[in-house]
């Protein structure tokens, strides 16, 4: 079903790209007007849910069998998770977004190009890129890892809904619809990333002087080359392909960031880091509650271009990023998993935006105060920043105090970085789509992986063509279709939170603690009643209990048996040991 829908979309886009663009724009207007509030509320729910699950007793539960060790080292785990989660987006928006918000803050906030605008720009950027998107990934990853590695369910998105719908979620039409929605969301989210990568690589070609202008034909060629690269990586497997590329890319990203940090306004960048954190924390309630009702039409337009687009993009990425980080997180506890997924990438993201975005703002601010128009990275045109997101990163590199050949070399490295960042994300996506289309196969067939890889490239080309030949129009085309395609999946993810909570509440580790507390409380009451306030002590031992699992098998847990012992210290008689654990309810 997902394959047929994809082919129909591709054919439609290639036959009448203008018609597809018109329909997507109309659909976007309807989504923003009628359901923008849903994206805003859902994003906050996901963040709170992930934090609560990690903080509760659920955090002690392992994502696997008891005593199982993690498959990947912590460094490789973080590298793969980060590169897959949002690497290409950081490169594309790392300079342009903070600079744009500095020059033109969100409607109704502060005046642009001021000290207050710097704080607002960095706080808003972190709001879009740190805690909230990674919470979405964590929820999907947690549901899949727990169900697959702890309970032995198939690696199907629908299987995570077994606590709500039963086995029908896996084998019935309802389960198939859920899996199709997951594939479609993943497809369009990956295609959007591929389109962004192609646009920025095209910008790099222009910046290095290889071509004066990059049109749609060149962008399609770039998409074809990137598609061939990530399909080749995907069929090589996770360990040989993704792990090697992720580690290589982290090194390249680190080198590029260090060069910009040292060559740019270093002291300004260092001051940006605490400023950004403070602005994010201070403005979080206001940022998390922005809807179209917060202002006039300007706020609605702003949300569709930024916050709602990002929430839709992250939601569309969550099936494949979540399922991918689940596959590489086996053996870690839930608390380790959620803490790692939320905090480590968010910290790296903070540093990245401080270096590239903060560095760009520092250069822009210095040029504005000195009146050096030629040194500015962007200018205001018709009340809005004239920022070409495809080129602004290369403009930043060109402004560094280095020889011209060094700047060109940095631009080439950046193009390579963009390509590898996309490959590490897209090959994960094609593997996940292949697995979902093959009923949860742990190692999907190469034929399936290749099909979904090629489909991703074709959809990216269609989305770019539907937007138009101008880079800004092409970017809007990518955003429009991504937001519309993510709408059904918001409901799916909210239901997933309910399913995860029901699952974790019945885990043997949680039941054991619950039974132990009940037994101890009962024994204390017995002791007080039997000894009428005299001193006594409790002796506790672990006794095996058997509870039925969801597949009618048996899972042994150990609950506490408490016996009341007089304060004299003598051993209790057998008759005293009448406070025994009873089988818990809902077992």
What is the topology?
Layout: H1 2-15, H2 17-55, H3 74-93, H4 96-103, H5 115-129, H6 131-150, H7 162-165, H8 168-171, H9 173-207, H10 216-235, H11 238-263, H12 266-288, H13 297-305, H14 307-327, H15 334-370, E1 380-381, E2 384-385, H16 392-398, H17 404-437, H18 446-467, H19 471-505, H20 508-531, E3 536-548, E4 554-566
Antiparallel strand pairs: 1-2, 3-4
Helix pairs in contact: 1-2, 1-18, 2-6, 2-14, 2-15, 2-18, 2-19, 3-11, 3-14, 3-15, 3-17, 4-5, 4-15, 5-6, 5-12, 5-15, 6-14, 6-15, 6-19, 9-10, 9-14, 9-17, 9-18, 9-19, 10-17, 10-18, 11-17, 12-15, 13-14, 14-17, 14-19, 17-18, 18-19
Organism: Glutamicibacter arilaitensis
Pfam families: BCCT
Protein name: BCCT family transporter
Give me some keywords for this one.
587 residues; mainly alpha; Amino acid/polyamine transporter I; 2 domains; two-stranded antiparallel ribbon; 20 helices; 4 strands; globular; disordered C terminus
Rg, nearest Å = 27 Å
Q: Strand-and-helix sequence, N→C? A: HHHHHHHHHHHHHHHEEHHHHHEE
Number of discrete helical segments: 20
Q: Please give the number of β-strands.
A: 4
How many domain units?
Answer: 2
Structural class: mainly alpha
Strand order of the largest sheet: 1-2
What profile does the largest beta sheet have?
2 strands, antiparallel
Query: What's the CATH first level of the largest domain?
Result: Mainly Alpha
Task: Estimate what percentage of residues fall within beta strands.
Answer: 5-15%
**Stretches with pLDDT under 50, minimum 5 residues:** 550-559, 567-587
Distance between the termini: 38 Å
Q: And the CATH topology of the largest domain?
A: Amino acid/polyamine transporter I
| Share of helix, binned | over 70%
GO cellular component, one term: plasma membrane
Subcellular location: Cell membrane
Family: Belongs to the BCCT transporter (TC 2.A.15) family.
Pfam families: BCCT
